[in-house]
UniProtKB/TrEMBL annotation:
The gene is ispD. The lineage of its organism: Bacteria, Bacillati, Bacillota, Clostridia, Eubacteriales. The keyword Transferase applies. The keyword Nucleotidyltransferase applies. GO terms for molecular function: 2-C-methyl-D-erythritol 4-phosphate cytidylyltransferase activity. This is 2-C-methyl-D-erythritol 4-phosphate cytidylyltransferase.
Length: 229
């Protein structure tokens, strides 16, 4: 499982957070959110290389963070695109040619543990594409554009998708190339493979692996880290 490359899209501005700047620079337990996220992969023996993708105006800040946090596995900090999909494509291109197994992980998911990450790698090693997800707790209903309920979806077959997501490099690059040519944009990288008709395996995730999107999420993340300590 060694020689894994990590792509961390961190170009989103996080308007729902209301901070007025990239939410991944917000402080979480005295460190920027992004620092927590990168630290996990820096400490993994299975990770050879990390690429962080940021907005053009954030590149210098990210490079400073990498320097002062002593993230030696960060091989590149590159400029992202308009949408997340464009940013991931740029990050994949920035990885060394020797990297043939790629993990994509949101910069704003700082609560993934090393144990959960390594378990994910082990359980996904036989698949060319695998994603992490957790069972849905709430009842989910499908509605029309006017809000009228159409039907209730069976929870047993539903998962809330998280990152990390892992792919063989060849199939991920092919999916991004075909999507770019067709002008297709998916909600995550796995959806590009689904669009191509390529199988994607779901692997059990962890409920604490939340994406910090709102001020309430930040408070929850602080509480989770406090409990861990």
């Amino acid at each position: 499982m060694a020689n894994i490359g990590i792509v961390i899209p961190a170009a989103g501005q996080g308007k729902r957070m209301g901070a007025g700047y990239n939410k991944q620079f917000l402080m979480l337990m005295e460190k920027p959110i992004l620092a927590h996220t990168v630290r996990l992969f820096e400490e993994s023996d299975f990770v050879s290389e990390i690429v962080i993708v940021g907005a053009e105006g954030d590149i210098s800040v990210i490079k400073e963070l990498v320097y002062y946090q002593e993230f030696h596995k960060v091989a590149a900090v590159c400029i992202g695109g308009v949408l997340r999909q464009d940013s991931v494509r740029a990050g994949v291109r920035a990885l060394s040619p020797t990297i043939q197994r790629i993990v994509v992980h949101d910069g704003a998911r700082p609560l993934l543990t090393l144990q959960a990450f390594h378990k994910f790698l082990e359980e996904s090693r036989e698949y060319s594409a695998a994603i992490m997800g957790v069972p849905i707790k709430d009842t989910v209903k499908r509605v029309d554009i006017a809000g009228k309920v159409l039907d209730t979806l069976p929870r047993d077959y539903l998962r809330a998708v998280q990152t990390p997501q892992i792919f063989d490099r060849e199939i991920l690059e092919e999916a991004h190339q075909q999507a770019a040519s067709a002008g297709y944009y998916g909600t995550d990288d796995a959806s590009l493979l689904e669009w191509m008709g390529h199988p994607v395996q779901m692997v059990e995730g962890m409920q604490e692996n939340i994406k910090v999107t709102t001020p309430e999420d930040l408070l929850l993340a602080e509480r989770i880290l406090t409990q861990r300590r």
